[in-house]
Amino acid sequence: MTHQALLSEKNLQKVSTKQRIVKIIVQVMLYTFLCVMALIVVFPFYWMIISSLKSTVEYRLPVPTLFPQKIMWGNYVEAFSAANLGRLFINTVIVGVVSTLLSLVITVLSAFAFARLEFKGKNALFGALLATMMIPGELFTITNYITVNNFGWLDTYTVLIVPFLVSIFYIYLLRQNFMQIPNELYLAAKVDGTGDFKYLCKVMIPLSLPTLISITILKMMGAWNSYVWPRLVTKSEEMRLITNGLRDAFTDMSGQANIPVQMAAVAVVSFPLFLVFIFLRKYIMKGVSRSGIKG
Amino acid sequence: MVESKHKWKAWLYLAPAIVLLLIFTVWPIINTVRIAFLDGYNMLGAVGGETYEFGIKNFTDVLDEYSGFKEALINTLLLTVVTVPLSTILALLIAVCLNSIRPLQRFLQTIFFLPYVTNSIAIGMVFEAMFNIIGLSPDAASAESWGIINNIIGLFGMDPVNWINVNSGYWPNFWVMVIYIVWNALPFKILILLGGLQSINKQYYDAAKVDSTPRARVFTKITVPLLSPMLAYVVITGFIGGFKEYSSIVGIFGDDMKAVGTDHSLNTMVGYIYDALGSNEGRASAAALILFAIIFVVTMINLYVSKKKTHF
Amino acid sequence: MKKILSILLAVAMLLSMFALVACDKGNQGNQGNEGNEGNNGTDGKPAGMASYDVPAVGYDGSAVTVVFYHSMGAKLQAVLNTYIPEFNKLYPNITIEHSSMGDYDGVRDQIKTQLTAGAQPNIAYCYPDHVALYNVTKKVIPLNNFIDSTIEVTDAEGNKTVLGLTEEQKADFIEGYYKEGAAFDTVGTMYTLPMSKSTEALYYNKTFFEKNGLSVPTTWDEMEAVCARIKEIDPACVPLGYDSEANWFITMCEQYGSPYTSLDKNDHFQFNNETNRGFVKKFNEWFRKGYVTTEEIYGSYTSGLFTATEGQRCYMVIGSTGGASYQTPPTVDGQPLFETGMATPPQVNPAAPKVISQGPSLCLFDSDNPQEVVASWLFMKFLTTNVSFQAEFSMASGYAPVIKSVQENPTYQAWLDKASGYNNLTALSVKLALSQSDAYFVSPAFNGSSKARDEVGILMQTALVKTGDVDSAIEKLFKDAVGKCNFSIK
User: Fold this and answer.
1) Could you write out the DSSP letters of every residue in A127-191?
2) Using 50, 70 and 90 to split pLDDT, how confident is the model at C47?
3) Range of the domain at C268
4) What is the DSSP letter of C98?
5) Residue of B nearest to C36 (CA)
6) What per-residue confidence (pLDDT) applies to C405?
7) Helix ranges (DSSP H) in C91-136
8) In a domain, C18, yes or no
9) Considering its fold, how many domains does chain C have in total?
10) Rounded distance, CA C434 to CA C451, Å?
């Protein structure tokens, strides 16, 4: 399937009418499939948006409406006015950017070691790291809380950033990507006398750019949406992150969530992330062939 | 000489990760193991000065008539075995299709990313709205609203199914969970596989083009093998994630982890751990270790298979 | 090189192990203190019944920060923020830092984790079940010595007041709410003071009732008869919606005077008995006749059924007074379609009514600095006994105030007078909540009481929809529920 665009460029003159029809049918099927899947996948997002525009009464209707009866822009006004958005936003950006950068460095270094360098116990160590993914993380929370408390890290940026810098999930992902890169390149570089680090920076990283961008997006998302840990380790308002401020602000009565306003808040918060994705997306799709690096 | 320098360097590359892991992952795991062997350990109780004896009661507790462990284990295994292949195949198809189209590519890609910025509460609400039957009469013959899915089924002349409501069956419940989990898993897998596809050197395709290889052959002989590290990644992490499934079920069936009026529990292993976390961390830790053992075995099998099949 | 690193790793592991051993030794050291309920070292509490030694100087005026966790939304926080300066006029050196943890469970989870590291807040919103959980650590402050304290404190305005509660203040609390603070043991240790409360009420379609000459049921027998009548008038309807299955079960136990749970450590879960199986069976019959539904069974809030303008509907709802605004009748062109009436829910014995008490209380946590505890007590006392704060908080939240004198406050009276079954259900519900204040009951709170609540809720909804051999199904459900409760605390 992937090659048909290429097919259409050069072999067009050879393609008979029959093949052409087949090609069109394939294209139609392709688009139908993608559009149907897209509809299914996008439905919750649509739901989030319409819910954010409903009144609480309408939201609680037994038979949910597919479009708000009366559009409540006021929910967004309330979402903006209720929380100290400025401070929360700055905090989140600081934590998000710093932890993404540091995390990328750690991930790249570790993935490189696992993918290209030879050392004894490599496989055992890698297996052990994978194994740590297998224990539900909820069990770690209390112990880690006690640890950071002993370090005196509560209520600092450090505690929001450092504990989650290492993700086996990403190291593994990048290692797999590094392994896609032909070994011959590495051996050739060795023969040329190129150092490991230089090779990593000049060859591996550019070749893995799509995956690195994916990791950046995922990590950003994580920082942006993290809720339980930041709430646990920050006491003062100045250190709070955006999800905490927003989620906690929109309860009516004594603790019942006002979901439409909450949804409006979530939509507002999601918007910068959406922009980040739009901005980075082209790098994912640029791919290797067009980023100027030739094997 | 070069070799030994190498080995030293490898650890240097790994140092930052290892230091942080020792503090924030290995230490909590050691603590978990310790707690698992203290009978009935309760963290708050320990703060209050209570002591707990060393023993294996936390592990034998799973055999208790009322523990609900067996059901949780079966549910988890079934869900994982069904959802991982399903979501991987779908994600692969979508990624390959997305990669091969030109018009609308950017637009569709953006659409497939949207679930990332969708709040999880919204996802739960959608499922509620789609499968929920409202005002079902006690004899299950009539209802106020049959829900979107049943309406669609009705278009094909089929009878409505009681998916998640009062007295619904295990299998309808099960398939709703499968759909939810696959749905949840898709965007991530698509993103990863798309990134992987983009990293494949275009020269391979150029070569295929010159040979005018049929497209099915290109897919099985070039795309899949070259993507195999990423596929292995998606499958292995999918299994690990699948065994830790929990929040999706709460999203549909609520904290009770079962459909109203039914006697079958839809609880999972992590649900079992959660139940115990509040009052009995010892039991929670023991269950986590059992879960760990299961995932470990499955992952080892996965790694073994992928070593044989993966083309690096 | 690799060897050195692996040795380093091994050393790190060994060190961790030593730390473990050290921890265990620490625990053993504590063993000698077992049985001394209030003794955990720092504050020199006496052995025996839980108590807290209030510093003899009372509050010495030192600068302290009080951390307060709650689940208030922006609107309620605004009310709180206007009263903190009032409090600071009296005690300028006490800084109040408050933050919302989203919801009650959020508050609980946060505090639970912080207690393990000794980093808990000073004051928190709480439900009795939560306090029972926290108090496993013995770090919840017993309030008796504070309440009874006669130590004089001088505030910044020069007024001398007692640190404790005066007789008037004690009597001013609505008794049912105040008693909740002592639901934790049999000797009357107070752990909480009520903050703001809600209860359950019967909402009914007053217009429909008047048109059809129906009278509002006061007993369950009358309720059955009314349901039967409504079914005749509108066969497609479900006459009654009950929002919370767990509340229903627990309230029925209380009304029948039959056991639910007890503080007896060896026999906590006593709800599997003849009477309870009896009422569950009766309601199962109701369900099968189409008289009743619940939130879980219906698949959505029953307020939706109550306010439905087309299709299926219900004419009565038993639900929280905190959610009164959701029972506001729907309008067409600004005209309400009916009037909502409110009444005390049906009773087994209307002469001695029983309704459940809900809504947050406040509890205090221990701290290394006794002055922090005293300052927290002062703030807690301020929140629960300040008439204008209680009045404003009630108006903003729709929850009932916990002190009687609020009702004499003119602003508050004016607000209550605006109560209407057409467009001001909030005030109407508070009025009702205040009027049934003699009827409140609380269930015993212990480690496992929240599990009991969960299980009876599941039992109730499952039992209602059973068909076929209902008796044996109900018997099994009761047995399983008790079994699961016992397993959870095993």
Assistant:
1) HHHHHHTTS-THHHHHHHHHHHHHHT-TTSHHHHHGGGS--HHHHHHHHHHHHHS-HHHHHHHHH
2) very low
3) 198-356+433-489
4) E
5) B49
6) 93
7) 104-116, 128-134
8) no
9) 2
10) 30
Residues 6+ apart with CB under 8 A from B159: B153
8 A C-beta contact, residue B269 and residue B73: yes
Q: How far apart (Å, rounded) are the C-alpha atoms in residues C325 and C93? A: 40
CA distance C205 to C198: 21
Residues C300 and C343 occupy one common structural domain = yes
Residues C340 and C371 in one domain: no
Q: Is A3 on the interface with B (CB under 8 A)?
A: yes
Can you give the residue ranges of every domain in chain A?
A: 4-52, 75-291
CA distance, residue B78 to nearest chain A CA (Å) = 18
Could you read off the pLDDT of C224-261 as tens digits, one per residue? 999 999 999 998 889 999 989 999 999 999 999 999 99
* Tokens (6 digits) for B276: 């115990």
Residue of A167, A169, A176, A168 whose CA lies nearest to A210: A176
CATH number of A75-291: 1.10.3720.10
Name the one residue in this structure whose structure tokens are 């393609």: A15
The ipTM assigned to this model is 0.84
Q: Is the pLDDT of residue C313 over 80?
A: yes
Helix axes A168-180, B224-243, angle to 10 degrees: 170
What's B244's domain CATH number?
Answer: 1.10.3720.10
Are A251 and C72 within 8 A, CB to CB? Answer: yes
* pLDDT grade for C307, boundaries at 50, 70 and 90: confident
Of A31, A44, A274, the CB nearest to B122: A44
Residues from chain B that touch A43, judged by Cβ atoms under 8 A, are 126
Whether C452 and C400 share a structural domain: no
| C175 and C99 part of one domain | yes
Q: Any chain A CB within 8 A of the CB of B5? A: no
Please indicate, yes or no, if residue C27 is contained in any of the structural domains.
no
Q: Is C462's CB within 8 Å of B67's CB?
A: no
**Residue ranges in chain B whose pLDDT is less than 70:** 1-6, 119-122, 135, 138-140, 310-312
Flag whether B264 is in a domain. yes
Dihedral sign for Cα A223, A225, A231, A236, please: positive
Predicted confidence at residue A291, as pLDDT, reads 38
Residue C31: pLDDT over 50: no
In the structure, what pLDDT confidence band is assigned to residue C2 with cuts at 50, 70 and 90?
very low
Q: How many domains are there within chain B?
A: 1
The pLDDT of residue A123: 85
C222 and C180 in a common domain: no
pTM of the model: 0.85
Measured over the CA atoms of residue C424, residue C427, residue C428 and residue C430, the dihedral's sign is positive
Q: Are strands C331-332 and C335-336 parallel, antiparallel or unpaired?
A: antiparallel
Q: What stretch of H or E contains C154?
A: strand C152-154
Assess whether C133 and C84 both reside in one domain. yes
Residues of B in contact with A7 (CB under 8 A): 209, 215
Same domain, C171 and C294: no
Given pLDDT bands bounded at 50, 70 and 90, which one contains residue A82?
A: low
